[in-house]
Design goal:
Helix 3 crosses helix 4 and helix 3 packs across helix 5. The chain has 2 domains: 193 residues, Ribosomal Protein S5, domain 2 (2-Layer Sandwich); 138 residues, Alpha-Beta Plaits (2-Layer Sandwich), CATH 3.30.70. It is built from 11 helices and 12 strands. It is of the alpha+beta class. Helix content is 41%, strand content 25%. The strands form 2 sheets. Strands 1, 2, 3, 4, 5, 6, 7 and 12 form an 8-stranded mixed β-sheet that branches. A 4-stranded antiparallel β-sheet has the order 9-10-8-11. The longest helix has 23 residues.
C-alpha cells in the first residue's frame, strides 16, 4: 500500500501581510488569494521494519534513521514537525516504519506559499493513512500550529488555508487566530480573462522572506505610522480587488494591484531590490500595466497584469533577464489524498 497527497500553491493577490501577527491580532486582516496548478506532493509507503526513510527533494534531505515511539530529527524540518505533532496528538503510525517522499513544483522561498503548502500536504497524507478526520479548517489550523508554534517558523496564516481549501478565497483573519474563509464564485469568463491578462515571472528564490516578515512585525509593534497606515491600505486592497474580480473589471484589478505594490514596498526595505525593479521596468516598458510580488518579497514570483494582446511582447522582453516566465492556470481543488 502507498498513500499519496497533493496540495496546491497559491498566488497572493491582495492583502498579504495583514494575516501576520501582531497586525492581524490588533487590527484584523483581509487576504484575497487563488490556487494555481503548481503543487506540493507527498508519498508515504509503510515498511515492515522499524526505520524512517526520508526522500525530501524540496529540502535536499535523503536519509534513513531508526524509528521508535518518540519524536524524530531527520534534518527534513517540515516532515519532522508534522510527524512529531501527529504522533503526539493522534498516537503511533500503523506500521513499524515507513518511507516518505516529498517534492514541490516551485522552489522554496519563491512567494507561492511552498513551505506552508508542504506542511498541509504532508499532514493530509498522514491523515489519510491513519484515518484522522480533518476537515479543511482543522487541516489548515493544525498545519498553521505545526509551522508557526511548534517549529517557530515566521510567516502568516493565509497559505495553510489556501492549500486546504483551494480556489479563489477571500479570507478574514481575526484575533485569537480565528480565520474565516469565504470561497468566491468567480464566473468562468472572468477566470479566463484573468489568466489571459496575468503573466507570472520567476525572478529567483528569495532569501529575505523571514527578515522581511520580522521587519513588518517590528513596524507594527513599534507603531510606525507610515508602515501601519500602508498595511491598512493593503488590507483594504483585498476588499477592493475582490469587487473588481467579481465584476470582471481587469483595468480596476490592475490599478488596485499596482497601488498595493507601492504600499507593500513601504513595509520593509528588502521587499524590493534592483533585480525586482529591473524586471518591473522591462515589463512595464514592453506593455505591462502593473504588478506585484507574490509573497513576502525580496525575490520569488512577480504577478504582472498585461493586456492579453501584449503578453507575448512582455514575455519576450523579460526573456533577456536571468529569470523565467512560468505558465500557469487557476485551480479549484484544495489538498487531496488517496491510497493505492
Amino acid at each position: 500500500m502507498m498513500i499519496r497527497s497533493k496540495a496546491p500553491l497559491r498566488l497572493g493577490l491582495a492583502g498579504g501581510g495583514s494575516d501576520v501577527s501582531p497586525y492581524s491580532d490588533l487590527y484584523g486582516g483581509n487576504v484575497l488569494n487563488a490556487t494555481i496548478n503548481l503543487a506540493a506532493y507527498c508519498t508515504i509507503e509503510p515498511l515492515h521494519r522499524p526505520v524512517l526513510q526520508v526522500f525530501a527533494a524540496d529540502a535536499g534531505v535523503r536519509t534513513e534513521i531508526p524509528l521508535g515511539t518518540g519524536p524524530v530529527t531527520t534534518g527534513a524540518l517540515l516532515i519532522d514537525g508534522v510527524y512529531n505533532r501527529v504522533i503526539r496528538d493522534f498516537g503511533p503510525v500503523p506500521a513499524p516504519g515507513f518511507a516518505i517522499t516529498t517534492y514541490n513544483d516551485a522552489p522554496i522561498d519563491s512567494g507561492l506559499g511552498t513551505s506552508s503548502t508542504m506542511v498541509v500536504c504532508i499532514l493530509k497524507c498522514f491523515a489519510e493513512w491513519m484515518g484522522i478526520p480533518l476537515g479543511d479548517y482543522e487541516l489548515a489550523r493544525l498545519a498553521y500550529e505545526i509551522e508557526r508554534k511548534d517549529l517557530l517558523l515566521s510567516g502568516g496564516k493565509q497559505d495553510q488555508y489556501a492549500a486546504a481549501f483551494g480556489g479563489f478565497n477571500f479570507m478574514e483573519f481575526l484575533p485569537s487566530d480565528l480565520v474565516i474563509v469565504n470561497p468566491l464564485r468567480v464566473k468562468d469568463w472572468i477566470v479566463e480573462e484573468l489568466e489571459a491578462s496575468m503573466l507570472l515571472y520567476f525572478t529567483g528564490r528569495s532569501r529575505e522572506g523571514a527578515a522581511i516578515i520580522e521587519q513588518q512585525q517590528q513596524a507594527t509593534r513599534s507603531g510606525k505610522n507610515e508602515a501601519v497606515e500602508a498595511m491598512h491600505r493593503i488590507k483594504q486592497s483585498a476588499v477592493d480587488l475582490k469587487l473588481a474580480l467579481l465584476q470582471g473589471d481587469m483595468a480596476e484589478f490592475a490599478r488596485i494591484m499596482g497601488s498595493a505594490w507601492e504600499d507593500k514596498k513601504k513595509m520593509a526595505s528588502a521587499i524590493t531590490n534592483p533585480m525586482i525593479q529591473q524586471a518591473f521596468d522591462v515589463a512595464l516598458g514592453a506593455g505591462a500595466i502593473s504588478g506585484k510580488v507574490s509573497g513576502a518579497g525580496g525575490g520569488g514570483f512577480i504577478m504582472l497584469m498585461v493586456p492579453p494582446e501584449k503578453k507575448h511582447k512582455v514575455a519576450e522582453a523579460l526573456s533577456v533577464l536571468p529569470g523565467k516566465v512560468v505558465p500557469f492556470q487557476f485551480t479549484y481543488k484544495g489538498a487531496v489524498a488517496w491510497k493505492l
